[in-house]
Amino acid sequence: MPKIRDFSWGETKRRTGAQLKKMIIGSSLLTTHLHEEIRRLKNLVSRLDTEIDVKNRRIEFMEIKMTNLSTSLSIMKEERDQLNQACVELTTSLNRVTSLLKQAHPQDMRRMHGSMNENETLRRELRNRRIELAQQRKEIEKREAQLVVLSEEVEDMCKKLEEKDDELDSMINLNNTLIAKERISNHELQEARQVLIEGLDGFANIRSRPPVGIKRMGELNEKPFRDICIQKFSSKEWEIKSVGLCSLWQNKIQDPEWYPYKKVTIDKKLHECRQYFAVQEVINEDDEKLRELKDEWGEEVYDAVANASLEMNEYNTSGRYPVRELWNFKEGRQASLKEVME
User: Fold this and answer.
1) 239-270 tens-digit pLDDT
2) Angstrom distance (rounded) from CA 140 to CA 73
3) Phi and psi of 298, rounded to 5°?
4) Residue 228 three-state SS
5) Given 129, 161, 260, 305, which residue has the most CB atoms within 10 angstroms?
């Protein structure tokens, strides 16, 4: 009969530890560094976005101001052309009146005198128009100078905006690269956990279980079912009843149509000055099936079903079958790679 080789906990640690220690340490350091770089880049990208938004709003304001200035200049140029035309017409009219005065008959002198008064009024109006035109010309020149300055500022801001866009693109590319590296690092850590799970799986059912080992998340603890069946049934029936009852509720836990949970909001403290709210799924004590289970089979069986159901919902909510996980049995929580190596 072939001898069965005896693998101990120490032999498994030595066999897997040397292969994974470097991978775990390197991946942990890289993950920490990547998190810090990603946080720094996110802050920088947010600051650049804010600065770009401010400069875009200023450019829009300057463009509107340039449009208004251009419109005002066009209107003033049209008025200047109209005044020039009026000056030409008035000069022509004065020349014609002067010529008529020289040729007029004495009896028309009175009428001509009235025309001369009218012409004098027109000349005063012409002088006033010329003064207004000169003022408008100065205003046009002033606004043209402002328009040149604004154009230069807009051009300079456009160049700076292009530089910021290039810088932002570079930051986004670097951020995407770091995120990709973080995913690779997380994938390597998951592979390391899977290797450890495979190596430790043979120790899951030994009598002297180590403090850190493998637990099947979402799988019922059979002990409460055995204990209650021993109390309720005879020595010939209790074992069959226990197995059947445990199998029945394991199937219910794996049924995706059964949803014995409710969502609650919990208040979590981030540090001394900040806190945030999170939504968590917990067992719904008002679930009809769970109430019937508790009334018929007691608190311990109810707790076993509730705990296994929560584990299934957390670790494999889509597949709805038990999955293996590194577990710290002493503290009742998921074990870290460092704890397994130690």
Assistant:
1) 999 999 999 999 999 999 999 999 988 765 54
2) 6
3) 100, 175
4) helix
5) 305
**Rg from Cα positions in the chain:** 45
**Between 338 and 292, the higher pLDDT residue:** 292
> What residues contact residue 13 under an 8 Å CB cut-off, 6+ apart?
341
- Reference 130, options 82, 74, 73; nearest CA is 82
Interatomic CA distance for residues 262 and 282, integer angstroms: 6
How far is Cα 338 from Cα 42, in angstroms, rounded to an integer? Answer: 30
**Looking at residue 5, what is its pLDDT?**
46
- CB 312, CB 218: distance < 8 Å: yes
Q: What is the pLDDT of residue 79?
A: 79
Q: How far apart are CA 314 and CA 219, in angstroms?
A: 13
Q: Ramachandran region of residue 30, left (φ > 0), alpha (ψ -120 to 50) or beta?
A: alpha
Of the two residues 251 and 166, the one the predictor is more confident about is 251
pLDDT reported for residue 39: 80
195 in Cβ contact with 201 (< 8 Å): no
Instruction: Please tell me whether residue 44 adopts helix, strand or coil conformation.
Output: helix
Backbone phi, psi, residue 244, to 5°? -65, -45
- The residue assigned the tokens 């009024």 is 121
The span from the first CA to the last CA of the chain, in angstroms, equals 36
Q: Which two tokens stand for residue 107?
A: 């009896």
Statement: residue 9 has pLDDT above 80: no
Q: What is the dihedral of CA 333, 339, 340, 341, to 10 degrees?
A: 170
In angstroms, the CA 293 to CA 290 distance is 5
| Separation between Cα atoms, residue 67 and residue 270, nearest integer Å | 51
Note the pLDDT tens digit of each residue in 76-99. 878 778 877 877 787 787 777 667
**∠ at Cα 11 (10, 16), nearest 5°?**
100
Closest CA to 117 of 107, 128, 125: 125
DSSP string, 148-202: HHHHHHHHHHHHHHHHHHHHHHHHHHHHHHHHHHHHHHHHHHHHHHHHHHHHHGG
pLDDT of residue 105: 54
